[in-house]
Amino acid sequence: MQEYIQQIITFIAILFILFTIADVVLTLIAKLIAFVKTTFDDVDFDIGSNKRKVRK
User: Domain segments of the chain: what residues?
Assistant: First the structure.
């Protein structure tokens, strides 16, 4: 029974660590996307016949 409880605790700890890492990675990706959007704000991202400049 003790080993079973230990395995559950280890599993929860690993999940917590993975979620923390995923949260950090997602935050970094979001910051990177925001940086790219502000840097290339007036670059044309539209593809096709309805091309237009995007400006703020």
Answer: 1-36
| Cα three-residue angle 28-10-17, rounded to 5 degrees | 5
Task: Using alpha carbons, list the distances in angstroms from residue 10 to 14, 33, 41.
Answer: 6, 34, 46
Q: What is the pLDDT along the chain (56 residues), one digit of tens a residue?
A: 889 999 999 999 999 999 999 999 999 999 999 988 887 765 555 555 555 555 55
Sequence-ordered list of residues with C-beta below 8 angstroms from that of 45, at least 6 positions apart, any chain: 54
CA 28 from centroid of its chain's CA atoms: 6
Q: Where on the phi/psi map is residue 12: left (φ > 0), alpha (ψ -120 to 50), or beta?
A: alpha
Q: pTM, whole model, 2 decimals?
A: 0.51
